[in-house]
Amino acid sequence: MQLSPQEIAERSASAMWARDDASKWLGGSLDAVGPGTASLSMTVEKHHTNGHDICHGGFIFTLADSAFAFACNAYNQLAVAQHNSITFIAPGRLGDRLTAQAREVARFGRSGIYDVRVVNQDDRLIAEFRGNSRTIEGKHFDEDGK
Predict the structure, then answer these.
(1) Which of 67, 75, 78, 134 could be disulfide-bonded to 40 (CB atoms 3.0-4.6 Å)?
(2) What whole-number distance in Å separates Cα of residue 82 and Cα of residue 133?
């Protein structure tokens, strides 16, 4: 029986999540995944805040990067970041629930482009992230069951 694209995305995400200590340490939650898409969220806690008493940009970047990773790995092909950039729009505040919503823009050859929108619980835009991926050798799971 051949797996559907959604089943492949879910099994790939499950395999990745089992080993993703960084996203778990961040306090991240994998909320949804599909072919070329993923949504992760986290609550800004005191240890995420910087000297301005707002969420440190590195944690926002990490949340967006994790959503990007699950989106570009949704095809049971190992994919890594080739280049990422982020633009911060508004601060994340203590207690905010930040959600990073990743979507595929394009896949071509071994490369992909993904946009990630980070919003708070009021759907206020916090950051825009763009990630470029590159597939490498390997798979998350054996589709043939061998």
Answers:
(1) 67
(2) 5
User: Kindly report the CA angle at 122 between 117 and 123, in degrees rounded to 5?
Assistant: 25
Q: Is 104 exposed, middle or buried (0-12, 13-18, 19+ CB in 10 A)?
A: buried
If DSSP codes are grouped into helix, strand and coil, which group holds residue 14?
helix
For the chain, how many residues are written?
146
Quote the pTM value: 0.95
Q: Which residue has the tokens 């969420």?
A: 55
Cα 58 off chain centre by: 14
Do 132 and 112 form a contact (C-beta atoms < 8 A)? yes
* Contact by Cβ (8 Å): 112, 75: no
